[in-house]
Design goal:
- This protein is α/β, with parallel strands linked by helices and 210 residues long.
- It has one domain: SPOUT methyltransferase, trefoil knot domain (Alpha/beta knot, 3-Layer(aba) Sandwich).
- Helices cover 28% and strands 20% of the residues.
- It has 5 helices and 8 strands, in the order βαβαβαβαββαββ.
- The strands form 2 sheets. Strands 3-2-1-5-4-6 form a 6-stranded parallel β-sheet, with helices on both faces. Strands 7-8 form a two-stranded antiparallel sheet.
- The radius of gyration is 17 Å and the shape is globular.
- It starts with 8 loop residues before the first strand and ends in a 27-residue tail after the last strand.
- The structure holds S-adenosylmethionine (SAM).
- The site of S-adenosylmethionine has 18 residues, from β4 and α5.
Length: 210
């Protein structure tokens, strides 16, 4: 019997601004911790963010790729041409609680690119030519981070919270009280830098933050 591979989820972050760089960092940390395979920061490069993520992966393990500076149209075109589906997170979309949108996305069996936006996203994001699904985490505007977290949790049905992060140097041992952290003394030599597995676009020209 053919083994069915679980679908991968990759996050596309549109609208990173240098004045709230921490928000993009939080999106990347949320994506990694809650089961996404990687993140694409479109249209801009942020070397500091790349270094932060490399450090997090070095310490906390797992496989997570990060690409930056790819124009959003190029990234989305390449994803769709590879047969992936696109889910755009927006307060205007189908409500994740009252519709069957998550089940429909899962039923495609395809890898999912989740667009998280910023202030005013390009109108095209709402259209069929870009997004197969427009998903609302409730129909009130809130934040890209909270909507991504809830989307991933619903998509993976909570299983992502019990995931093992391979080759971690640091591991938290959960306790009722106090803090327990185990440190391993092996060095990882394969930090994420080469992990372009899930995404076919070659490294583009770099767009440096103004
Ligand atoms: C500051 S909000 C802008 C709110 C925007 N008017 C919208 O379409 O959701 C920035 C990003 O957070 C995400 N977001 C905010 N509220 C959301 C919600 N209720 N459901 C899904 N995504 C949401 C979207 O990706 C949005 O582009």
């Amino acid at each position: 019997m053919k083994k069915i591979k679980p679908a991968k989820v990759v996050v596309l972050r549109w609208g990173h601004r240098s004045r709230d760089a921490r928000l993009t960092t939080h999106i990347a940390l949320t994506a990694r911790a809650l089961g996404a395979s990687g993140m694409i920061l479109t249209d801009i490069a942020d070397i500091k963010l790349k270094r932060t993520l490399a450090q997090v992966i070095e310490n906390w393990g797992g496989v997570f790729f990060f690409k930056m500076g790819i124009p959003w149209r190029t990234a989305l075109k390449a994803w769709r041409e590879k047969g992936g589906v696109v889910a755009h997170l927006t307060a205007y979309g189908e409500n994740i609680q009252t519709s069957k949108v998550i089940q429909r996305i899962r039923a495609t069996g395809k890898n999912v690119l989740v667009i998280v936006g910023s202030q005013k996203v390009p109108g095209d994001f709402f259209s069929k030519k870009i997004s197969h699904f427009n998903v609302a985490v409730g129909n009130q505007p809130h934040s890209e981070c909270s909507s991504l977290a809830i989307f991933l949790d619903r998509f993976f049905e909570g299983k992502e919270l019990d995931r093992k992060f391979e080759r971690a140097n640091l591991q938290i041992i959960p306790r009722t009280h106090g803090k327990k952290l185990v440190k391993k003394d092996k060095r990882r030599k394969d930090i994420h830098t080469n992990l372009s597995l899930a995404f076919p676009v070659p490294m583009p020209k770099i767009y440096i933050l103004a």
